[in-house]
Amino acid sequence: MLGFDRITFDPNVMGGRACIRGMRVTVSLIVNLVANGMSTEEILAEYPYMEPDDIRQALAYAAWLADESVHTLELAEGGVR
Q: Is residue 52 within 8 Å of 44, Cβ to Cβ?
C-alpha cells in the first residue's frame, strides 16, 4: 500500500480493520460520515484527536480500494451472456 501512512491494521484494534493511526476510528466510519454529509470541520469537532489529513487519507484509501479493473470474458461461439 503506497502512501497510506495514516492507515493502520492491527488485529488487536477493531479486529484488524483499516483504522486511522492505530486508533479505534475505522476508515469505514470516516467514509460513512462524509457520505452522510458531515464536513471535515464537523468530523474534527466530534473527534478532536483526528487531523484533517486523517480524513483525506481515509477517503483516498477508500477510493484506492474501489478502483476496480473490469475484465471481460470471451464466450465460446454460441455462448450465452
A: yes
